[in-house]
Structures are given as C-alpha cells and as structure tokens.
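Lab notes, practical 5.
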Amino acid sequence: RLKTKTAFGSVGRRIPYRILHVINQDGESLGNMHRAEALKLMDQHGLKLVLLRENVEPPVYRLMTGQQIHEEQLKRAEKQKASPKPGMYIKELSFSSAIAKNDLETKTKQIAQWIEKKHHVKVTIRQAK
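Output from the prediction step:
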C-alpha cells in the first residue's frame, strides 16, 4: 500500500532535520539554517513552520501564518476533489452534431444512467461537415 502524503500543515516543533532551507511568509528564501534558528524565527514572528519539500537536501520549510496554511489546505482540498478517485470511472461519449433525434435520446438515457451510478461523464460533440 502506498503511504499517503501527510496533510499539509504546521510541523510544530518536531523537525527531524538539523539543517533546513527556510522560506519566509512572503515567499523569500532565507537560505539554510539550523533548526533551532528556524524555531526561534517562528516564535519571534508568531508563525508556523510547514514542510514544503522533504526529498531535497536540505529539506525546504516555509514560515507561514495560520491563515496562509488554512488557504493552502483549502486549495489542496479543491484539487483533491477535482481529481477522480481510484475506482471511479470516467465514461466518454462522442457524437456528431448531425445526430438523429432517436440516437440522441438513446445516448441521453445512457448518460443519465451513468450519472446515477456516480460515474464522471465526458461528452464530446463533433461538428458535422
């Protein structure tokens, strides 16, 4: 089973690395620093540290306000909702704009059935020559 990516949020004081690359709340790089220094900055400015990239040397952390973290979580949740979930099917249907009335009714019924079954449906209409 794949290890799911941990939720985006403050890491608190549990930082497993000694040296971090720190980015301030305005997105400017503060360079590499010892974790004690990063924690001191965090306390002085009332900010939280968030892990951005772990698999780089040194790992990248960003100082953020609670509001910035909340907004980023909302953005990520939206993105998550937009991507199809595993086991969810995307049904595709394409037809010409010159489709006969009874064919269109048949396809419309088919689409309605798929939607009832909670499938995502993608319809493409090609323009007839």
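Observations recorded by the TA: The two ends are 50 Å apart (CA to CA). The CA atoms of residues 70 and 100 lie 51 Å apart.
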